[in-house]
Amino acid sequence: MTPPIESLLTLLELERNERDLALRGVRDAESLARHAQAQAQTLDAYRTEYVERWSTRLRTPSSIELVQCYQGFMQRLDQAIGQQRAASEQAQVRLQQAVLALREREQRLGSVEKLIERRRHEQHRHAARREQTITDEAAMRLHERRLAAARRQDAGGNDTVT
User: Fold this and answer.
1) Mean pLDDT across the stretch 11-40?
2) What is the number of domains present in the chain?
């Protein structure tokens, strides 16, 4: 037995809500990915600027403590850049997963919409058949009454055709 159209409309509404949630998930994931990418680029730009600034300063004789401080900071900065790149890559993966989830939801929604369309078409076809059957039966009864009236008239009666 096929589910009534009302059940399918309820399912359609649920699928639309799920698709909307997936769409929000994509937007959120896009925002996080852009933010993570921007932070990684900012850190890269800062590192480049820092190296340029200190490269001229370190060309002159400097204390060992200053060089060690510079090297320590550069190691921490490189570590932070690596962590931010990893976070950016993870954000991109989450974005791809969110896009796939959205596509799946859109496909499910499309399937339900097509099913509803087919059911409505089927209902219209059945209604047209019922109407045609009713019309055919009414025409048959009218024809039979006319034949019966014609027979009675041929048999000598004075009945008229109705």
Assistant:
1) 97
2) 1
Residue in 43, 42, 114 with CA at minimum distance from that of residue 76: 43
- Residue 158, domain member (yes or no): no
**Contact assessment for residue 5 and residue 123, using Cβ atoms and an 8 Å cutoff:** yes
Amino acid at 92: Q
Q: What is the pLDDT of residue 1?
A: 58
| Kind plus residue range of the DSSP H or E element containing 139 | helix 64-154
Closest CA to 93 of 162, 14, 6, 29: 29
Domain that holds residue 89: 5-122
Calculate helix-pair angle for 5-57, 64-154, nearest 10 degrees.
160
CA dihedral 74, 79, 83, 85 (to 10 degrees): 50
Encode pLDDT of 55-89 as tens digits. Answer: 877 777 878 888 899 899 999 999 999 999 999 99
Q: What is the pTM of this model?
A: 0.69
Is the Cα torsion angle 19, 21, 24, 25 positive or negative in sign? Answer: negative
> Could you tell me the CATH number of the domain that includes residue 16?
1.10.287.1700
The whole-angstrom separation of Cα 45 and Cα 43 is 5
